[in-house]
Specification:
With about 400 residues, the protein is α/β, with parallel strands linked by helices. The chain folds into 2 domains: about 1-15 and about 275-400, Aspartate Aminotransferase, domain 1 (Alpha-Beta Complex); about 25-270, 3-Layer(aba) Sandwich (Aspartate Aminotransferase, domain 2), CATH 3.40.640. Helix content is about 40%, strand content about 15%. It is built from 14 helices and 15 strands. It has helices spanning about 1-10, 25-40, 50-65, 80-100, 115-125, 145-150, 175-180, 205, 255-270, 270-295, 325-335, 355, 360-365, 380-400, and strands at about 15, 75-80, 105, 130, 160, 190, 210-215, 225-230, 300, 315-320, 335, 340, 340-345, 350, 370. The strands form 5 sheets. The chain has a 5-stranded mixed beta sheet with strand order 2-8-7-6-5, with helices on both faces. The protein has a 4-stranded antiparallel beta sheet with strand order 9-10-15-12. Strands 1-11 form a two-stranded parallel ribbon. α3 (about 50-65) runs parallel beside α9. The longest helix is centred in the C-terminal third of the chain and has 23 residues, at about 270-295. The protein is globular and about 65 Å long. Belongs to the class-V pyridoxal-phosphate-dependent aminotransferase family. NifS/IscS subfamily.
Length: about 400
Amino acid sequence: MRRVDEERCETKAVIDLDQNATTPLDPAVAEAMIPWFVAGGNPESRHGLGRRARRALEEARERIAAQLHAEPSELIFTSGGTEANNLAIVGLASLAEETGANDPVVATPIEHPAVTQPLARLADEGRLKLDLRTEWVGRDGVADVEAMAAALTPRTAFTTLILAHNETGVIQPVGRLAQEARKPGVPVHTDAVQAVGRIPVDFAGLGVQTLAFSAHKFHGPAGIGGLLIQRGLTLKPLLFGGGQQRGIRPGTPPVALAVGMAEALERAERQGEARRMRWKAQRDRFEALLRRELGDHAVVRIGPDDPEARLPQTLNLAFPGLKGELILLGLDLEGVAVSLGSACASGAMTPSKTLEAMGLPPEVRHSAVRFSWGAFLDDADLDDAAHRVVQVIRNAREEQ
């Protein structure tokens, strides 16, 4: 039976509405990378090939930094967002140990696992204390940064707040938290993996000390990301064995991937406003179509009412009375790729910690589905996907 279902899915054009997970590589980005995959030359070598690779690497660094309003020297290339977040968290924890800032890290439970898991590991090792409170998360998913700021002291190790949420699409007031944290002198980290390439990100303007991002979220290559580290701040490395990138991230930098990330980010920023306007229109039209066909009462939007407070290409919708995993499977058979508002642990579906922290009722948490897309889906694709969603929801209700 499973094979028949798979063959049925393969006969339909698949519409990828799971692009907060990853985005397809832009063909223009692939074209920009190809010469550097075949060119040879280690950017650390002193001969001609090495110098050529070094120039390409540093030009990519300058291009990326310019788009994020940072200095080139503030950018460290990493293998992706997970490493960038870990490098920041562990590095800031080490800095706190050195300075004696041993009051708890202030954060919320809605952070990505690439932040919460290293924090938990460091706490288990006794290297830091944690203050994670669900009361700092509103029912709309927006963090109460004033309440978080009230918990900061001059001895707080650091604080962290995700810039744009991977599940809900909520854009958090990170700049306000950084402004408040400046008073007691507390470092601020932000996970901007879902934000960079989708909304304007100004590292200098935000006022944070570290910022993580990843190329494959904005049609760049997988396997590379970056960590911006404010000038004057020195973090200890996670890895050892070389002096590359000031010793903060040793290892031979992947020139082709760096060039690809620079090209993808420049293209995203160059088309930024037009792309965001199109995404917002698609997002609102998608939701409106579902509400028209299924009824307002049957669709619950998760997140703030203000559309500007959510990522333009992300919708988290709940369909109370249904189970999210059954919706996902039904949509998979209909050729629509989505993700749930819940996480899969060892093959068992468990409620999303984010939706729990928001205080949403079980019938909403367990029926939540995340829809997210990128630059290469047009209005017809989104309309087609919406009609498939309507059919799956109707079928699921009839079968109950």
